[in-house]
Amino acid sequence: MLDWLYTDIAIDLGTANTLIYSRNHGIVLNEPSIVALNLENQTVAIGHEAQLMHEKTHRKIRTVKPLRDGVIADFEVAEHMIRGMIKKVKVRWYSTTRKMVVCVPSGITEVEKRAVRDSAEHAGAKEVFLVDEPMAAAIGIGLDVHEPVGNMIVDIGGGTTEIAVIALSGIVYSQSVRLGGDELNEDIVNYFRRNHNLLIGERTSEQVKCMLGSATPLDEELELTVKGRDLVNGVPRTRVVTSKDIREAISESVNTIVESVTKSLEQTPPELSADILDRGIFLTGGGALLKNLDKLIMETTDLPVHIAEDPLTAVVRGTGKVLEDLDYYRAILT
User: Fold this and answer.
1) Radius of gyration over alpha carbons of the chain, in Å?
2) Cross-strand bridge partners of residue 287
């Protein structure tokens, strides 16, 4: 009877996208982490609807991304967003949220953890459990985190890159770099401003990154016509750019991610290094889809690199497994 009254959910509260896993139903929501508000700070739209409004609003509506660098930047808006997204996935209107598992970056402070916990409780959760993102990603791609074996996870999200070495249900070494997909978008916007005197929006830069972005030269270079506003005379203009141009634009940020992986390997205990040599490095998160990123890390570290199957949902799948068996995964909760 209680199962009819309560809903248990797991949330991957990401800077770019929020994903929700519902017990017995799997992944039920995958939407951008953005909210549209009116002048009275009332919610107009959440997720996909708000994303369509982003950078196209008038003075009576504004769009807000409540998460920055993987943590809550706007407490009130984050609460509205979580509440609205939970409402979207409710199977029965009268059911309430009993248990909620939320994944958080491994490098966040206790104050930032408190903000996530409070937001989840204010959104209606009776019990809130937190799990580190790299740990959730490892569980999501099917690794046994309880084994006395070392696994290296590199989770490249919208706001942060999480690098962690996991063994015996714990994180032996972790590094949280506040750099991810959003930083690459910014690099592309700056490239167009600097090299073409063209101002492009966030959504356009995201599209350019997905279509042309690469970490090493491609077998066949791609090109794309991009629309924006000419900064010299203020009128709309188009420019043709190639994947080579975009690779140069994002190279500094990509190299920072690769250097962080190398530094993490230097800090790994020798016995676990031997395990990583055998098992390789696992890439998850949306950033893992950047063309040839695995190839660049492989060339730099001389280690095998595996891109997770469906890297975008790896973290929420792992968080969902934790929700399904809280007793088994009790040791990994933070």
Assistant:
1) 21
2) none
Distance in angstroms (rounded) separating the CA atoms of residues 100 and 271: 36
The amino acid at 209: K
Q: Give the pTM.
A: 0.91
What does the DSSP assignment read for 56-82?
A: ---TTEEEE--EETTEES-HHHHHHHH
Q: How far apart are CA 314 and CA 139, in angstroms?
A: 8
Determine contact, residues 184/209, Cβ cutoff 8 Å. yes
E runs forming strands in the chain? 6-13, 17-22, 26-32, 35-38, 43-46, 61-64, 67-68, 71-72, 96-104, 127-132, 151-156, 161-167, 170-177, 198-199, 223-230, 236-242, 281-284, 305-307
Look at the alpha carbons of 309, 307, 313, 104 in this order and tell me if their dihedral is positive or negative: positive
Contacts of 278 (CB under 8 A, 6+ apart): none
Give the whole-angstrom CA distance, residue 274 versus residue 270: 6
Shortest CA distance to 106 belongs to which of 174, 189, 53? 174
Structural domains in the chain plus CATH codes: 2-136+315-332 (3.30.420.40), 143-179+252-311 (3.30.420.40), 181-249 (3.90.640.10)
Which tokens sit at 1?
């009877």
Question: pLDDT class for 107, splitting at 50, 70, 90?
Answer: confident
Single-letter amino acid, residue 35: V
Phi and psi angles of residue 254, each rounded to the nearest 5 degrees, phi first = -65, -40
Task: Show Cβ contacts of residue 327 under 8 Å, excluding neighbours closer than 6 positions.
Answer: none
Does 108 score more than 90 pLDDT? no
DSSP class of residue 94? T
**Neighbouring-strand partners of residue 67:** 72
- pLDDT tens-place string over residues 159-178: 999 999 999 999 999 999 98
d(CA 315, CA 30) in angstroms, rounded, equals 12
**317's tokens:** 């799948």
Nearest to 259 by CA among 218, 294, 301: 301
